[in-house]
Amino acid sequence: MKKTFTFILFSIACVLLFSANVQAQCAMCSINAEQGVKNGNTVSAGLNTGVLYLLAIPYLMAMIVGVVWYKKFRKKNVELNMKKEPFHLN
To answer: SS3 for 81?
Structure first.
C-alpha cells in the first residue's frame, strides 16, 4: 500500500512539475480572440480560461467517481464472534 501511494504521489508531482504551458484553443477561437483583443474587445480576454475550465470538468468528474468507487468497494476486515478468525468482506 505504501509503494502504491508513493508511486501515485510521485506520478502526480511529475505531471504537475514537468507539464508544458499550452494554450487550449482551436484555430477559429484563437483567431476570434486575437481579432477581438486588437480591436479593444475585453470580452474575449477570458476565452482561454473558459476553454481550460470546460476541459477540466470531465477529468474532475472521473476522479470523483474513482474516489467514491474506491471508498465503497475497498476491502474491510470485520471480526465476528462466530469463530476466532477475522471475516473478510469482498
So the answer is: coil
Residue 37 near residue 48, CB atoms below 8 Å: no
Q: How far is CA 44 from CA 35, 39, 47, 58, 64, in A?
A: 9, 11, 5, 24, 31
Output the nine-digit C-alpha cell for 78.
Answer: 470485520
Total Cβ atoms within 10 A of residue 33: 20
| DSSP run (H or E) holding 77 | strand 77-79
pLDDT in tens, 24-82: 567 777 777 777 767 777 666 677 677 778 888 999 999 999 999 888 877 666 655 66
